Amino acid sequence: MTDPTHAQHTDRHLVLLHGWGMNSAVWDDLAGDLPPGVIPCPIDLPGHGDRPFSPPLGDLWSWADTCLDAAPERATWLGWSLGGLVALAAAVRAPKRVEGLILMTGTPRFVRAADWMPAMLPETLDQFHAGLLADPAEILARFLALQVRGSDDARETLRSLRRRLAERPQPNPDALSIGLNILRDEDMRGRLPDIRCPTLWIFGTHDALVPPAVAERVEILMPGALTAVVRGAAHAPHLSHPDQTGEIVRNFLARMEDPGAGPSEGPTTP
């Protein structure tokens, strides 16, 4: 006989979007550690992993539309780095379809400005762009190293990233170039107040790409958002600190399911 309690339970979907030059294999460990009833839905960004790329996919909004086309009708969206920008755009584009957001080492603006100092120098992305034309494989290798720099156990995290990348096709060079354009040009700060769904931002204390000081800015731009900082992590906390990061994600999902669940102050900072 079917358990009536179980019969009333409705599965929830969690869309997982990876970062620049990566693929959805980076979510294998996290996807296996989700609460019961949460179904992982990893989606490759255009031109990454197994997803094809076509020339019209030239900006953030077209990438968000492509991911929405591949996503369940309603889901919580978890985006890492560049995937976080795409998740934010999806929430703006289709607010009724995005019931929650988790931004993993994400930021509304990746490049430094006079009024946005905790960010990358524009020259860093310019160097990646220039190198991409000459040697895409070398640029990807440099970007991998930059993501783990300063993290606890950086070597093992780097090996893990390399293994996952090798499991899928190499990213399309045109998609890589457009992805860098999105990181350089997009500024979603003005859109954050329009996003009303439950939102969690996760940062790493040693992140060289998205400094943890972004948390303070996000709390001003999105007063209802939760923030968490993983101590000792760099730009890939789900790989370098899977237990702590997984706990933060699970606590947030539990709070979405039952607002009375978990500590009232939100995710803890391990």
Descriptive key words:
alpha/beta, single chain, 6 strands, globular, disordered N terminus, six-stranded parallel beta sheet, disordered C terminus, 270 residues
Topology:
Elements: H1 4-7, E1 12-17, H2 28-31, E2 38-43, H3 60-70, E3 75-80, H4 82-93, E4 98-104, H5 122-134, H6 136-148, H7 154-166, H8 173-185, E5 199-204, H9 214-221, E6 226-230, H10 237-240, H11 242-257
Parallel strand pairs: 1-2, 1-3, 3-4, 4-5, 5-6
Structural account:
- There is one protein chain.
- By secondary structure, the chain is an alpha/beta fold.
- 41% of the residues lie in helices and 13% in strands.
- It has 11 helices and 6 strands.
- It has helices at 4-7, 28-31, 60-70, 82-93, 122-134, 136-148, 154-166, 173-185, 214-221, 237-240, 242-257, and strands spanning 12-17, 38-43, 75-80, 98-104, 199-204, 226-230.
- Strands 2-1-3-4-5-6 form a 6-stranded parallel beta sheet, with helices on both faces.
- The longest helix has 16 residues, at 242-257.
- The N and C termini lie far apart (42 Å).
- 47% of the residues are buried.
- The model is unreliable at 1-8 and 262-270 (pLDDT under 50).
